[in-house]
Structure formats: structure tokens, C-alpha cells
Amino acid sequence: MKISKRKFGLSKDKEIVYEFKIENKNGSYITVLNYGCTLTSIVVPNKDNNLVDVCLGYNTIQEYENNDGYLGAVVGRHANRIRYGKFILNNKVYNIAINNGPNHLHGGEKGFDKYIWDYSIKENGLIFTRISKHLEEGYPGNLNVKVEYEFNNNNELTISYEAFSDSDTIVNLTNHCYFNLNGENKGSILNHYLKLNSSLYTENDKNCLPTGELLNVEDSPFDFRRCKKIGLNIEDDHDQLKNGLGYDHNFVLDSKDMLKYVGFLLGDESKIKMDIYTTCPGIQFYSGNVLSGDLGKNNTKYTKRTGLCLETQYFPNSLECTNFPSVILKKSDIYKEKTIYKFSI
């Protein structure tokens, strides 16, 4: 594995931001910033054996700082939504930012995606670390966080998360990469094929916040148990699609294995296939419904549904929905999760 580092730019605070490249023996590679542990490119071969960048991203640090969408970043301390920006832990109420309608989203006003992380380089990957201070964005506990990226000769991208705190807190980490397997500058993802090994999904209210109800995918636009085109049912007259302006839902993974096979995404033109494995209990499928047209790499306008996210996670709003897997991290415990994206033809 060949790992290199270059200066990517200066942050608003005049700190140097670095971009790291992990390249395998076949010439495939990923690039990652120490700003937000942000994936800036994933370059793998297509059906014609031409290298294709399948990860949406920007050319400058200023764009990552100023644009919304969390492109490629690690989000936390709690990914996804928390109702009304508050939660109760050990009988104490914690108030956190309301930054998505009436709710909290992806860690708040300055989540993990907006920090420059410490880094170290290992044989086949990168290690990023930081300490999220007690009451940073309102969350309790000094949280030590480690995120590792590995990329191997089989074109497998592994993202590993680890965290521990000096007091009880909540943690739910994910990566917010936007994928377009035809190429990040190749337009809509509606003709991509998706398979998810999930029989249930979490019902959303009109603000995309889970209500606590689990809905069966049977006979609905949310049934991806058999591979189908993403665009096939996305405009159906269905309340849940209206609530999300498309797909923006947490799918409950059927497997009870420690490392679960989630399913796959397939680029219709490139024939690039991305198999997904995770230790997490759920995955948020977001079909890029509100991408706002920011200019990305290659001066490509990232408009509605030019990329999609498949974010492995614990369920949103879990503290209120006690039937969901818990996001509470006890002082004596270690949060440890892993996700693998495997690219092939």
C-alpha cells in the first residue's frame, strides 16, 4: 500500500489541512482529509477498466467549510436526528442545537465534520483522533474518538470507529459519503440498482424524524430486498416518500450477525458494484433529495439526486424511541463499530 500526504489548503483559522492518499497495487485509491475525516475521492475501475471517481466532493477546503451537505465527512457526536434538540440521560435534560427544522442533526452547529483531527499513518491506512470536550455542542462527557480508514488490494474500504468517555454520554457515528457509481460527474443516481437486506424501516414524521414505529417494506416503495432501480418507485404517491422528498429513511438490517451483509449498490453504466458490510444495526438510505447545486469537482453541479448516501448507523431519535437499539455509551464501555464498502465489477 502506498500512502502519501499533501497540503490541501488553509482553514478559516489558518490551520493547515492535509489530504492523504492510499493507493493499492492496482492503481485504485482513496483520498481523505484530516478536516472532518472527509473522504474526498474513491477511485476504482469500471467495466472498461478505466478508473472512475465515485465519491462526490470539492476542490478546496473553503468549499468544505462553507457548503452544506456533509460531503464525505464523519458526522457526530450523534449522527442523524434528535427530536427538538434535547435528550434525557441519567434523569438530566441536555439541550443541543436545533439545526434541522425543529430537530437536531449530525452533531449540531459545529459537529465532528468541522474539526481538524490529529492523524497518524499506519501500514495500510490512516488513524484520525480527537477529544470532544465535555458539553461540546451540549453533549456530556469528554469523549476520546478514533476513526480508521483502510484500503486494500481488493478495493475494500474499511472505516472503523472507536470511542470512550469519562462519563455516560451518547454516541452514533457514521460517514456521510455521497456515492455515484457511474462517476461523481455523471448525473442522476436514479438508474442505479440497490439491494438492501431489510424487511423493516423506521417510520418518519414530516420532518424526517422517526416516530418509533417500524414499518414493513412488503408491498411498498421501500422494498429493496430484491435488487431494483432506485428511481422505480421514488415518485410514488406514498406518505413516507413525501415526508422525505424521496428516500431519507433508516432501514433495519435483518441480519443478527456481528458483521452484517447489508446488500449492494450497482452503477447502471459503469457496472461498478459496491457491497456493504457493517456491525451497525441500521443504514440510512438518502437519495440526495435536497442537494443544492453547489459546484463540485470537475465543475460539476451537484443537484438533486446526483449522489446518494448509505450511512451505516444506530437509529435516529433512539433516546426517545426506547424500542430502538440504545445509543448510550456508559463510562465503563467502549463504542466500537465497523463498516466495509467493497468495490468490484
UniProtKB/TrEMBL annotation:
Catalysed reactions listed for this entry: alpha-D-glucose = beta-D-glucose
Coiled-coil region: none
InterPro entries: Ald1_epimerase_CS, Aldose_1-epimerase, Aldose_1/G6P_1-epimerase, Gal_mutarotase_sf_dom, Galactose_mutarotase-like, GH-type_carb-bd
Keyword hit for Kinase: no
Source species, domain of life: Bacteria
Protein keywords: Carbohydrate metabolism, Isomerase
CDD domains in the record: galactose_mutarotase_like
Enzyme nomenclature, EC number: 5.1.3.3
PANTHER family given in the database record: ALDOSE-1-EPIMERASE, GALACTOSE MUTAROTASE
Family, as annotated: Belongs to the aldose epimerase family.
Name of the protein: Aldose 1-epimerase
Organism: Romboutsia faecis
Classification of source organism: Bacteria, Bacillati, Bacillota, Clostridia, Peptostreptococcales
